[in-house]
Write a sequence for this structure.
């Protein structure tokens, strides 16, 4: 692992990581910086996001980002190119636990808000990152956090599971679409990971 001097496996690379103020996103940001990358921490939690960027030093920037809002996502991608000159990796990681309860009792607004973060957020991150990556003409990587809950029944609540299944499918379709541009699109499908999201909050992964 690099000592942060820019000689690691990701030296010269620039990444935007959503939900990077805590949990999986923060761990990823820390590892990316350790491997020589520059990172944009895009997170709804401004206090935690600023603290994370400060702890990571000059290789990190923070922007408050609601991934369901297109202008916020576009601004996070723009910050990467403005601050660091390019984009190489987009990690669409932000998440919430979402709607929970019997299907007969779920509120439609809760269902919609679950899909807004978990699916629309991935769509918007992919859209705006792909625009930059195609324009650069050097390929790149888009990574989406899905879940084992999106691969079958019984691993999570209905709305969360359905949203993660949509992420898996969106990943497959965009991988085929963007392959001619040498842009890789992959999904990770974790099982239970003890992040703040696991402890009952609608917080970033």
């Amino acid at each position: 692992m690099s000592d942060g001097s820019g000689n690691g496996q990701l030296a010269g690379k620039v990444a935007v990581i959503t939900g990077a103020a805590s949990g999986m996103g923060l761990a990823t940001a820390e590892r990316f910086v350790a491997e020589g990358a520059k990172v944009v921490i895009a997170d709804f939690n401004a206090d935690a996001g600023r603290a994370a960027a400060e702890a990571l030093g000059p290789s990190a920037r923070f922007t408050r980002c609601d991934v369901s809002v297109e202008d916020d996502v576009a601004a996070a991608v723009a910050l990467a190119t403005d601050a660091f000159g390019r984009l190489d990796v987009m990690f669409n990681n932000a998440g919430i636990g979402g709607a929970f309860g019997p299907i007969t009792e779920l509120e439609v607004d809760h269902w919609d808000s679950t899909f807004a973060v978990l699916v629309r957020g991935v769509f918007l991150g992919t859209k705006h990152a792909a625009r930059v990556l195609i324009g650069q003409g050097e390929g790149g990587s888009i990574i989406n956090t899905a879940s084992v809950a999106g691969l079958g029944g019984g691993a999570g609540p209905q709305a969360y599971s359905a949203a993660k299944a949509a992420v898996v499918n969106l990943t497959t379709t965009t991988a085929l679409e963007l392959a001619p541009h040498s842009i890789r699109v992959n999904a990770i499908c974790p099982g239970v990971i003890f992040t703040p999201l696991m402890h009952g909050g609608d917080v970033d992964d």
In short: Strands lie at 14-18, 38-43, 60-64, 89-92, 140-145, 183-188. The first strand starts at residue 14 and ends at 18.
